[in-house]
Amino acid sequence: MSATRTRGILTAAAAIVLAASAIGGTAAAQAAGTNDRPNGNNAGSGSHRETDTALAEAFNGVDRNTNWQQTGKLKLKFPTYHTEGIAFSQDHIFLSAVQIIEPTAKFPSPQGGFDRTAGKGVGHLFVMDKAGNLQKDIVLGEGDMYHPGGIDFDGANVWVPVAQYRPNSSAIIYRVEANTLDVHKQFEVKDHFGGIVMDKQTGHLVGNTWGSRRFAEWDLRGKQLSTWQNPNYFIDYQDCQYVPASKMLCGGITNLPQTPAAGGPDATYELGGMAMIDLKSRSVTRDVPFQQWSTAGHVATRNPFKMTADGNHLTLKLAPDNGDEGNGTEILTYEATVAPAK
After folding, report:
1. How, if at all, do strands 204-209 and 214-218 pair?
2. Closest CA to 204 of 237, 246, 238
3. With 90 as the cut, is the pLDDT of residue 113 above it?
């Protein structure tokens, strides 16, 4: 082999390494001891350990008797369609939503591995200032993959899964730079994934499928590293966030039947709740109901959900109502102070 060809091969290899480093740089930086509070103040600890465990510790003090008080309501004054996930950076509020153009329709029996048609729609990631004013509408998705799910902010990027609006289908995982709003198609996966977080300790992504029945873990190139079944059937997780260290906090909902006297044989009610998942043991460490209601009458954890902690004081941001319901989409703020868990 000639020296010129050898130098060319080494140069190409170096370029590949640099490209991989650029893709994984955020994960490596986040794994080196940062917090992920929505205000974006990321303070490196100087080690490979995360030190901000306030949210995990405070959430362990939440129970059915926690006194949540609604302290804020921010009405959004632009079309928001069906809201899905929310995230907060230092400068922006991000809200994912799906605009339905043609609803899906159930098949009499499964066809091609699907239980319903693909439908048609448009996936949106709305970017707002802190006053809720729309700054940019980022359209995400391809073909039948138009349904954004729960989103998460890792301190630098917003991660957004955009899936087909049916189970056992496919999804695209997007990375949106929070400062520049540049969009990167990270990889595609074979299944409907409706939520995602970045585990800052490992630098890996963790997603949950339709109904949150299954979890999967990938590296940043989309290689599936593991998968496991959800051991919990309390609620279906809709929007999640990463919590140090290697935890996943999710909000969600399930519809349960009522007695026929409450509204007929098909009557249901919405049960809301929150759950903390340990990504190392893959177990649900705590789950609690949340039965506060929106203007349109939805349980407040119906879709967008994010929580922060200042010591034992918790702040919860929710946006359960669609743009065409009640008073339109409102970002609701709830607060509670909990006793330290024993």
Report:
1. antiparallel
2. 246
3. yes
